[in-house]
Amino acid sequence: MKKYITILLVTLIMIVGLLGITNPGFKQPYRLFDNVEGKLTHNYYIFSVYLRNEGYNLSDNKKYRIYKRYIGIALNFYEISPLKVEQE
Q1: CA neighbours within 13 Å on the CB side: how many for 61?
Q2: Chain centroid to CA 41: how far?
Q3: Which of 5, 20, 32, 57 makes a 20 to 30 Å CA pair with 64?
Q4: pLDDT score at 13
Q5: Sheet strands (E) in 3-47
Q6: Dihedral (CA of 76, 82, 83, 85) sign
């Protein structure tokens, strides 16, 4: 039983280390999405959260600006829930 726990622990540490090295925020925190720049909002060791700087959309009632957000993990970007900011 102790042998399996050691193998599981070593495997988990190696996966976390690999994800940390391949985090897009680790190598290029400012240049993202080909030629369009993005803003790094949160940089964790395993993944990063980005806000893409290409403008914004207004919500249906025009009270909120809606920005697109992406999560970067293992050198790939995935779109996550948008960010709503109240318009001034």
Answers
A1: 5
A2: 8
A3: 32
A4: 92
A5: 38-43
A6: positive
Model confidence at 85, pLDDT cuts 50, 70, 90, reads: confident
pLDDT for res 44: 80
Q: CA–CA separation, 30 vs 39, rounded Å?
A: 7
Write out the two tokens for 73.
């993990």
- Burial class (CB within 10 angstroms; exposed 0-12, middle 13-18, buried 19+) of 61: exposed
Task: Specify the pLDDT at position 12.
Answer: 92
Write out the E strands in 1-88: 38-43, 48-52, 57-58, 64-73, 76-86
User: With a threshold of 0.70, does the pTM exceed it?
Assistant: no
